[in-house]
Write a structure and sequence with these properties.
By secondary structure, the chain is an alpha+beta fold. It has 1 helix and 16 strands. It has a 6-stranded mixed beta sheet, with no helix packed on it. Strands 13-12-15-16 form a 4-stranded antiparallel beta sheet, with no helix packed on it. Strands 2-7-6 form a 3-stranded antiparallel beta sheet, with no helix packed on it. Strand 6 and strand 7 form a beta hairpin. This is SLAM family member 5-like.
């Protein structure tokens, strides 16, 4: 019967090999037993222990695996004592120990495997910003790499011979360089994906013979003309109104007879 309590009768054993295995969520891994040509009949028992509990065992030629909770239906123990874990979950990460006792009562060295399960990286996106700097006749490039899947992947940029480990990349780009390709790779222990972006530095300069200073002068001149025109218009309107009032007053005096009668 499978023992599900923390039961480790073997003491004083040494670790023969330490192995790290990486897996991705939903995938399958095989944890090797590294027992060579030994057969089932050579052992009293072989256990695979995880989190202090026996998860799979071969005892007296009988194979039994843990079908409770976390690993239900996902473990398979092979005749060579290797343990297969299917439909991996993040919580499957941790240390797995293979221990055992031979028929003659001697212990086999404990074999420890560190399993690291990660989310697979599904997509990689690059955001780019290119700014023309007229003072030095070059472009300033700013790139940001992001991904979906694993929330904490590592990022590596590649541009020509340049390599940089960061989620951001900054560099200068000359117009004569033409198209320049930069690639970002997001990776973890289980997967990696790469995305590329092509950039070209295009100068954005004013038309020939036209400068920012000239533009300011034109704007100032136009504004000045508008202001002067407004002042002249107001002045002429006031003058016209005064003349009209004067004429109307003269006409009134010339048409009114003495005594108020014609």
């Amino acid at each position: 019967m499978l023992i599900l309590t923390s039961l480790l009768l073997i003491s004083g054993v040494c670790v023969a090999v330490d192995l790290t295995i990486n897996g991705s969520v939903g995938g399958t891994v095989e944890l090797p037993s590294v027992l060579g040509s030994l057969k089932v009949e050579d052992f009293r028992f072989v256990w695979w222990i995880f989190n202090g509990k026996i998860r799979a065992e071969i005892s007296s030629g009988h194979i039994e695996v843990d079908n409770q909770a976390q690993f239900k239906g996902r473990l398979q123990l092979s005749p060579d004592f290797s343990l297969t874990v299917r439909e991996l979950r993040l919580e499957d990460s941790g240390e797995y120990q293979r221990v055992g006792l031979k028929e003659d009562g001697s212990q086999i060295p404990t074999y420890k495997i560190q399993l690291q399960v990660n989310e697979s990286i599904t997509t990689v996106q690059i955001q780019s910003e290119l700014t023309w700097l007229p003072e030095i006749l070059t472009c300033a490039a700013y790139l940001v790499c992001s991904s979906t899947g694993d929330p904490r992947p590592s990022y590596t940029w590649k541009k020509g011979k340049q390599r940089e480990s960061s989620s951001e990349l900054r560099f200068f780009l000359l117009p004569e360089e033409g198209d320049v390709i930069a690639s970002c790779t997001a990776a973890n222990s289980a997967s990696e994906k790469t995305s590329n972006v092509t950039m070209r530095c295009i100068p954005t300069v004013p038309p020939v013979g036209f400068s920012p200073c000239l533009l300011k002068m034109v704007v100032f001149s136009v504004g000045l003309i508008i202001m002067v025109s407004a002042v002249i218009t107001v002045h002429l309107r006031e003058r016209f109104d005064r003349q009209r009032e004067h004429v109307q007053g003269a006409e009134t005096e010339g048409t009114a007879p003495p005594g108020g009668r014609l």
